[in-house]
Amino acid sequence: MKIIAEIIGYAAVLCAFIMFQQTDRKRLIFCKLIIDFLWITHFAMLGGYTIVCTTSISVFRELVFINRDKPFFKGGIWLWIFIALYAATPIVTWKGIYSIFPAMASIAATVSFWVKSVKETKKISLLVAIGQLIYEIAINSYAAITNELVTIASILISFFRGWKKMKVE
Q1: What is the DSSP string of 126-160?
Q2: Residue in 93, 1, 22, 97 with CA at minimum distance from that of residue 55
Q3: Rounded CA gap, 144 and 19, in Å?
Q4: Which residues touch 125 (CB under 8 Å, ≥6 apart)?
Q5: Who contacts 73 (Cβ-Cβ below 8 Å, separation ≥6)?
Q6: Cα angle at 122 between 151 and 72, to 5 degrees?
Q7: Are 36 and 58 contacting, i.e. CB atoms less than 8 angstroms apart?
Q8: Fewer beta carbons within 10 Å, N or C terminal of the chain?
Q9: What is the pTM assigned to this prediction?
Q10: How far apart are the first and last CA of the chain?
Q11: Per residue in 24-60, pLDDT tens?
């Protein structure tokens, strides 16, 4: 079971690298949706229930944020609904202090996807990666640890590419 979980996790790692190379906000969020389904499966197989909860909420978050241009999804109330849901997850799934980190990371991710700037989304995602990394080390998920390292590298590469492009222009 652990080997299958890790294979699914490594598929999510590949998708994460691709996600941060996107320059369009909707494509970035769509990639995140695919990644979320892979991680839900991965962490459920490993018993990481706090992150299963936060990632399940994230699926709905991405659906709301992808449709943010529609009247029903425009209101700022959505941001606060998701923050409240994430804040409740460690209470429901408590297995020690590490249970706090996926919730904190998910709240930061929610803010990062709420802003309309892809550059700001990527900056905040660096903080998200650190919060997730702490939890993933605690539950011994090699694929997820790799993912956070790849995510950090991917974000830094995208910043370097943007900086290099600005320098050329």
Answers
A1: HHHHHHHHHHHHHHT-HHHHHHHHHHHHHHHHHHH
A2: 93
A3: 15
A4: 20, 109, 112, 151, 155
A5: 64, 65, 67
A6: 120
A7: yes
A8: C
A9: 0.78
A10: 51
A11: 877 887 888 888 899 999 999 999 999 999 999 989 9
What's the CA gap between 65 and 42, in Å, rounded?
24
pLDDT tens per residue across span 73-126: 887 899 899 999 999 999 999 989 999 999 999 999 888 877 777 778 888 888
The amino acid that residue 23 corresponds to is T
CB atoms within 10 A of CB 159: 15
Would you call 116 helix, strand, or coil by DSSP?
coil
Tell me the angle at which helices 142-168 and 2-19 cross, rounded to the nearest 10 degrees.
10
State the virtual CA torsion across 63, 103, 81, 12 in degrees, nearest 10: 0
| pLDDT at site 22 | 85
